[in-house]
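Section 3.1: Structural characterization of target chains.
Under the original work plan, the team committed to producing a structural model for every single-chain target entering the pipeline before any wet-lab resources were allocated. The record below documents one such target. The sequence was received from the expression subgroup and is listed exactly as submitted; it comprises 172 residues.
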Amino acid sequence: MINIAICDDDRMATESLEKMLYEIAAGSNITIRCESFYGGTALTGVISEQRSYFELIYLDIEMDDMSGIHTALQLRDLALPVLIVYVSAHEEYLKELFRTEPFRFLSKPVKKTELREVFHAKFIMLVVNHSQVFPLHSMANLNPLQFPLLSFFLFPAYALLLQFFLHLKVAP
């Protein structure tokens, strides 16, 4: 599952983006969970207070309570491994955006083909990043077993083999 945050003070833009993301994910057989925020303060508050985790954040630049750039700087201060995609009609900020290390920039109004490209690029990054692991908890072992996500995405045919290994006793 990919956890996605959408942060834009324009509710119609947020709803449209969320709808397109669910359609793209369903068409790609990928499970996502989207959560919408209507200001940078709300997004950073939820992430810092509740330690909510998002792999991907779609972020507007010009918002009423806090700019998207300021929001992104606060997120970077938390040192979270999140990809930020700016969604804005204001391309004049492009130079300033580099301070926040964005993943991509999408111009408003967002085209579904461009959104699909960005979404699939994120999914490919999950596959390529060998350091990300899937924790598997078992009753026999209190510490979760760690499996690289790469193996789940690239070798789904080995699901039966995985079931076999789960029945083996794991040595400490």
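The beta strands are 2-7, 32-37, 56-59, 83-88, 104-107, 133-136, 145-148.
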